[in-house]
Amino acid sequence: MAELRALVAVKRVIDFAVKIRVKPDKSGVVTDGVKHSMNPFCEIAVEEAVRLKEKKLVKEIIAVSCGPSQCQETIRTALAMGADRGIHVEIPGAQAESLGPLQVARVLAKLAEKEKVDLLFLGKQAIDDDCNQTGQMTAGLLDWPQEAKQPFLLDLSDLGQCKLWISV
């Protein structure tokens, strides 16, 4: 029986099919009234966690999202995909727009410790800012080893040794 618990970070982003418009003052992109969805790479992370649960290697999957109240939709999507429960770290809209990878990594590290998870899944990058930093920063803050290159080739017999898993 599986005893591993997994935390999966899921980010709310502007849907990849939406045509992006720049704000008139050139300070960013228009987000009001624009369709948002789960970052596609975060979807892959959820799918990988669910696959491990189906193989009885993981007993619980917790989806977490940081941002405005609309992030609850992203968590509900993760729950529909197979996550067992969700955590929403609410950050008001204006603050959420300036949230950087290090701030998210700090939140994820605290949640990983609080929830006593064994695995942390993240998408390899976000399609809105194209960053690939949060996973590595989280691993550093937790002092956990990570798998960031070829997670699908990771030997599942070593799963108990791996503390951070980053999907591609």
From TrEMBL:
Which keywords appear in this protein's UniProt record, sorted alphabetically? Electron transport, Transport
State whether keyword ATP-binding applies: no
Predominant location: mitochondrion
GO (cellular component) term, any one: mitochondrial matrix
Which GO MF term does the entry hold, naming one?
electron transfer activity
Looking up Pfam families in the UniProt record yields:
ETF
Give the family from UniProt: Belongs to the ETF beta-subunit/FixA family.
Q: What is this protein called?
A: Electron transferring flavoprotein, beta polypeptide like
Organism of origin = Mus musculus
